[in-house]
Amino acid sequence: ALEKRGVKEIYACCTHPVFSGSAIKRIASCPVREVVVTDTIPVAGDKKLDKITVLPIAPLLGEAIHRIHTGLSIGAMFELG
Question: What domains does the chain contain, in order, with CATH numbers?
């Protein structure tokens, strides 16, 4: 549907890559260029595709825990600039 409306590239993201049922087969055959996920759930070898990018979340969680423990702002982690 998006391609028919002139979209040139399609990207998707999800926090927890469960990929149950036929999800991998559907992702492999769809026009989505890249699916960006976090490593909160390991992506099994049979579910790894070139178009799936896994981002590590440990550094972000570690920084958030540090900020909470030391009384610093968590919101500041997400400010641009």
Answer: 3-78 (3.40.50.2020)
- Residue 63's SS3 state is helix
The secondary structure of residue 46, as a DSSP letter, is: G
pLDDT, one tens digit per residue, over 18-46 is 999 999 999 999 999 999 999 999 999 99
Residue owning tokens 């070139």: 50
Q: Of 8, 14, 20, which Cα lies nearest the Cα of 53?
A: 14
Q: Hunting for tokens 């600039």 — which residue is that?
A: 81
68 CB-contact burial (10 Å; exposed 0-12 / middle 13-18 / buried 19+):
exposed
Between CA 68 and CA 75 the distance in angstroms is: 11
